[in-house]
Amino acid sequence: MGEAPTDLEVTDLVEGDGAEATSGSTVSVHYVGVAHSTGEEFDASYNRGDPLQFRLGIGQVISGWDTGVQGMKVGGRRRLVIPPHLGYGDRGAGGAIKPGETLIFVVDLLEVR
Predict the structure, then answer these.
(1) Which helix (H) or strand (E) holds 93?
(2) Residues near 12 by Cβ (< 8 Å), separated by ≥ 6?
(3) What is the Cα–Cα distance from 95 to 16, expressed in whole angstroms?
(4) pLDDT tens digits, residue range 63-87?
(5) Where are the domains of the chain?
(6) Residue 80 to residues 43, 51, 66, 76: CA-CA distances in angstroms?
(7) 98 with 33: CB under 8 angstroms?
(8) Which residues, including other chains, have CB under 8 Å from residue 77's CB and lie 6 or more apart?
């Protein structure tokens, strides 16, 4: 995987052509999350069959998501590489994400309200 980045990296894999996600809008996304250090998947909404819904830009999710999902358009797919200070930091998250982990998410934007 190489060196972990120190800043948020946002890469559009598929450009959407629907409504744009902006701060304050409620979005519905499917995602898969992988630990940068191991390449192991730690979470995927696809496996549950239920997309994640949250209000963008108000801290309901990690700040890498609040920043990284903004500007996406419905139908789009984006890769977010999120350094620890924009993710779960030194506390990690449960047993799945170790402290200080850089996170890689692939996010599909399904809906904007």
Answers:
(1) none
(2) 72, 76, 77, 78
(3) 34
(4) 999 999 999 999 999 999 999 999 9
(5) 9-112
(6) 14, 17, 11, 13
(7) no
(8) 12, 13, 14, 16, 106, 107, 108, 109
Q: Which two tokens stand for residue 79?
A: 């890769």
Strands (E), 16-102: 26-35, 41-44, 52-55, 77-82
Asked whether the whole model's pTM tops 0.90, one would answer yes
The CATH code of domain 9-112 reads: 3.10.50.40
Q: Tens digits of per-residue pLDDT, 3-45? A: 888 999 999 999 999 999 999 999 999 999 999 999 999 999 9
